[in-house]
């Protein structure tokens, strides 16, 4: 079982719709959770981080964390074609006691927003 | 610019050659990470530096991989006797000590290594 799992997609949504991206993780001791966006051929760019159960909103983006279910999600409201990219879920911390920021990434979900 | 820079951006090496990849982190950033990203996969952790100290090298895939950051700023990832399975994008990331944005990592553009 991979430590961080994402559906590789592709996920296709129409412009203006809500895109829902999901991620599960195996290490129950994980502490911090991150969503990165990566355009083709570019480096990952941080969108949001969350470390408390519940929702965190930033503009059109909402991150949701449920530690009991070991589940984190990203909602993108009013999706735009410019949101088309690979979305990477990353997790920090856990049983290894690595509190300095080492990230474990999922394989990424490809999102396509079509006009 | 003030971002993380990496060089070269592209490197083609013949199998068995040694390569050196350079990372210039954001000025003043304490933490520096190297990741390896294979095609269609997420980045995988290789190693971590806090200033000049290499605190974690658990992700280095073999003893052919070596990283250093002698003065606590620029870092070099060296791969000896390259193999085809080393072909990937090598990403460098740096992070400040910032309690408001814990562990926020800024990625460089990466070096795409192709071993032929």
Shape category of chain A:
globular
Mean pLDDT of chain A: 91
Low-pLDDT residue intervals, each spanning 5 or more residues of chain A:
none
Helix proportion of residues of chain B, in percent?
Answer: under 10%
Unreliable segments of 5+ consecutive residues of chain B: none
Q: Fraction of residues of chain A in helices?
A: under 10%
- Strand composition percent of chain A: over 45%
Intertermini distance of chain A: 36 Å
Beta content of chain B comes to over 45%
Cα radius of gyration of chain B in angstroms: 14 Å
Biggest sheet character of chain B:
7 strands, mixed
In total, the number of strands of chain B is 11
Report mean pLDDT of chain B, rounded to a whole number. Answer: 93
**Rg over CA atoms of chain A:** 14 Å
Helix and strand pattern of chain B: EEEEEEEEEEE
Tell me the series of helices and strands of chain A, N- to C-terminal: EEEEEEEEEEE
Number of helices of chain A: 0
Describe it:
The complex is a heterodimer of chains A (115) and B (116). Chain A is mainly beta and 115 residues long. Chain A is built from no helices and 11 strands. In chain A, the strands form 2 sheets. In chain A, strands 2, 4, 5, 9, 10 and 11 form a 6-stranded mixed β-sheet that branches. Chain A has a 5-stranded antiparallel β-sheet with strand order 1-3-8-7-6, with no helix packed on it. In chain A, strand 6 and strand 7 form a beta hairpin. Chain A is globular and about 40 Å long. Chain B has 116 residues and is mainly beta. In chain B, 0% of the residues lie in helices and 47% in strands. In chain B, a hairpin with a 6-residue loop joins strand 4 and strand 5. Classes of the chains: A mainly beta (115), B mainly beta (116). Chains A and B meet through strand 5, strand 9 and strand 10 of A and strand 4, strand 5 and strand 10 of B.
